[in-house]
Amino acid sequence: MRNEFSHPLSFASNRSFKLFTIQNCKWICWETWSLEPEILKLFSFKISGSRLQVSQQIHSRNMNILKFITAGSVDDGKSTLIGRLLFDSKAVSHDVLHTLERQSRNKPDGELDLSLLTDGLRAEREQGITIDVAYKYFNTPRRKFIIADAPGHVQYTRNMVTGASNADLAIILIDARQGVVEQTHRHSMVASLMGIPHIVAAVNKMDLVDFDEQVFYRIAADYQKLSQQLGIPEVTFIPMSALAGDNVVTISEKMPWYTGKALLDHLETVELAEVQEDEATRFQVQYVIRPRTEELHDYRGYAGAMRSGSFRKGDKVRVLPAGIETTIKAIEVHQQEVDEAFAPQPVVLHLEDDIDISRGDSIIRVEGLQPAVTQDLDLDICWMSERPLYPGDRLLLRHNAATVKAIVKEIYHRVDVHTFEKEPAEQLKLNDIAFIRLRTAKPLVFDSYQLNRTTGSLILINDNTFDTVAAGMLHEVPVSETLQQDFAI
Amino acid sequence: MSKKFDYLDHLEAQAIHILREVAGQFERPALLFSGGKDSITLVKLAEKAFRPGKFPFPLVHVDTGHNFPEVIEYRDRMAKQLGERLIVRKVEDTILRQGLKDGSGKFPSRNALQTNTLLETIEEFEFDACIGGARRDEEKARAKERIFSIRDEFGAWDPKRQRPELWDIYNGSIRKGENMRIFPISNWTELDVWNYIRREKIELPNIYFSHSRDCVITPGGQLLAITEHLNLDPEDVRTNREVRFRTVGDATCTAAVESPAITVDDIIQEIIDTKISERGATRLDDRLSEAAMEDRKKNGYF
Predict the structure, then answer these.
(1) Do residues B69 and B34 share a domain?
(2) Which of A6, A227, B71, B74 sits CB 3.0–4.6 Å from A232 for a disulfide?
(3) Is A291 touching B (CB cutoff 8 A)?
(4) Interface test with A, best of B1, B2, B4, B7 (most A CBs within 10 A)
């Protein structure tokens, strides 16, 4: 391993490269990883006699970020998979590699224990577990990646919910020898609950089942049933061996029957949602900018992020929950006036009329889909506290910049994460997933989580310790209740 | 207008969102400003978040007294240019006041003592939130750090007490005595910071760029600038090299790297080509033990 790194040709180890001859000169050319996300490097080596001539071309590209989570239990090879991605994409630096070599000394034949790359704290190493969600970064010429690594143990549901809340994609690891097991049910249930748009079912440890095609297809069929039950729209199946690197970064020669992409190729090319023209426009005020200086005496800007959709100067808008209508006078992005702003840009809005607006208020375009505005909320929650939740409990609710008091009106049911059965519950325990009703002190302006992950999500906070105790995913308001709301003046 | 948001736009948007949450959720926040590239990046982001208004927080520098003069000059000039309040508290004063033992030995570092001064400053000004430029890619214990990281009244970080961080909803509610450390550029890597500096044309202290400097070679083979704070022996190997610094910190424990890079572009190319991580290349204190950072954080270090 060490030699490979010090040799310039090590770059070629994982990338397709071409060998060709021009004017009696042999050339090797390949595309390689670069730590620089904007840059795609094309290396070409000219072989003339014993001399090697190197030239480098650098290409810039417009890059984006893919955030993903890996779900698997302790023995599914999750840490090894992440280690493999980091290692093969050269995100592991020399000194970290040295530390790794030192720590891997007990391993046979100088083989590196890639799982050590993701185990952070001493407490974890001593106990051989991972306590929490750890974030890892790597990039390829095509994309920047953020991995939320949630460990597989008792706290798992809570940690996976946390990691999944920001994920565009989930890799669900399935041990080829075990197939779809109880854990797979739980991981898929959470991925579906959290509305992760892309799911990869990675059938790992194919080396231990002799790379058998039949095993893979059997597991894929089983998983398909599961995903249909959960209403997961799209699943990509990949057979792999994270330990040996088969179908992780490069296509494996040992599974010629597999015609799909290697995992990394899929991660690099999976399409990320972009802002849709007709998407509902949502904005929430985070902070009011009032310089109160002589020159800017009347300046009053509403700072916040576009939560979804886009605003144009001159749009008719409604301030909620007050229900007052006005017009957008100006939009500023980084102190420059612009005609249009779109999610997730941070902006400063100026309104035509002088209205009393404060942090947490929403500004919505009058045209287009309207949000719900109500004090009675139905939502799925994942309970994250050691202390159980009972009907009647009082909590604080934070919906981005809005904070309101809330009371638990009813626990409709709890969901068994393994069987997906709904069951009655008098209280909720740590890691429980349930459907409940809350009543808030003031109306909340929101969309259903299914429609909008940004405006449909909230957290619950213990009003004494201020710990975050639940993740909440809002449901649509029943039509009968919408009719009773008359918020507009 | 292009609706393509590239990765730097995403990172920037997230950081601005976080800074505005700090402004909205806390009574008395502060931004820790060392004159290093990460805190300079934070200042740039704060300008984007709050201009034309003033920052809703002062800039605070915990001065080890072991700084390079160029950095101090930059710090003072920048605060003046910004028109923002700068609070400087010196580790030296804390040592005298609390009767602490100063760093000793050949390379007497005040890196650990900074924590005492920071806690004193938090108490003096009753800061409820301190914004810092730490990044998760720096080190393994940092990879588990929250963006809103709660500390008890001793400044201690307890990995088990950290709150789950969901979506982009940040819970900044604290009890009396507790305070929050906030890291808006958690998701940035060293290279992201440099790319941002290039894109935004941010000025940096010149020690980040190649210059000739008298150095001593440490037993670990690293280059340390010769300053009056070191207690060198005659047999120590002195040398003059073309160097630059990758991080700005206590001059007694922040090593220089040999480099001909004189522009931001040079540095970016150099980072791409080098394979030694930022902390490993330059921090003597982290080498002491693998759990060094974990221990310091538990004691209230940033």
Answers:
(1) yes
(2) A227
(3) yes
(4) B7
State which residues form the domain around B187.
Answer: 7-192+292-298
State the Cα–Cα distance between residues B70 and B59, nearest whole angstrom.
Answer: 18
Q: What's B140's domain CATH number?
A: 3.40.50.620
Nearest CB neighbour to B13, from listed A335, A346, A454: A346
Tokens 């009082």 identify what position?
A394
- Residue B210 main-chain phi, psi, to 5 deg: -60, 135
The dihedrals phi and psi of A76, each to the nearest 5 degrees, come to -80, -5
- Peptide bond connecting A321 to the previous residue in cis, omega within 30 degrees of 0: yes
Q: In terms of domains, do B127 and B176 share one?
A: yes
Whether residue B210 is found in the same domain as residue B233:
yes
| Contact: B164, A468; criterion CB under 8 Å | yes
CB–CB of A154/A76 below 8 Å?
Answer: no
H or E stretch covering B285: helix B284-288
Residue B197 lies in a domain: no
Please, which pLDDT band fits residue B295 given cuts at 50, 70 and 90? low
A320 token code pair: 């909620």
- Least trusted range by pLDDT, from A70-74, A394-398, B244-248, B275-279: B275-279
Distances (CA, A) of B49 to A307, A346, A455, B53: 16, 8, 21, 9
Using alpha carbons, select from B165, B264, B12 the residue that is nearest to residue A384: B165
A290 contact B CB<8A: yes
Chain B interface test: which of A289, A292, A345, A400 (most B C-beta within 10 Å): A289
Is residue B100 a part of any domain in this protein? yes
Residue B167 shares a structural domain with residue B86:
yes
Q: What is the pLDDT of residues B171-196, one digit of tens each?
A: 999 998 899 999 999 999 888 999 99
Partners of residue A10 in chain B, C-beta under 8 Å: none
Number of domains in chain B: 2
Amino acid symbol at B179: N
Q: Does A166 touch chain B (CB under 8 A)?
A: yes
Tell me whether residue B1 is in a domain. Answer: no
Residues B259 and B237 in one domain: yes
Q: Residues A265, A238: contact at Cβ < 8 Å? A: no
ipTM of the complex: 0.86
Partner residues linked to B244 by β-bridges: B257
Whether the CB-CB separation of A78 and A147 falls below 8 Å is answered with no
Domains of chain A plus CATH, in order, are 2-60 (2.20.130), 64-269 (3.40.50.300), 282-365 (2.40.30.10), 372-484 (2.40.30.10)
- Kindly determine whether residue A121 and residue B159, on different chains, have CB atoms separated by under 8 Å: yes
Q: Report pLDDT for B1.
A: 37
Cβ–Cβ under 8 Å, residues A286 and A363: no
Which residues, including other chains, have CB under 8 Å from residue A102's CB and lie 6 or more apart? none
Give every CB contact of residue B294 below 8 A, 6+ residues apart in sequence. Answer: A121, A122, B141
Find the distance separating the first CA and the last CA of chain B, reported in whole Å.
40
- pLDDT tens for A148-169 read 887 666 567 888 899 999 999 9
Residues A144 and A141: their CA atoms lie apart, in Å, by 8
Contacts 24+ apart (CB under 8 A), A461-465: A461/A395, A461/A396, A461/A397, A461/A398, A461/B171, A461/B173, A462/A385, A462/A387, A462/A395, A462/A396, A463/A394, A463/A395, A463/A396, A463/A405, A465/B175
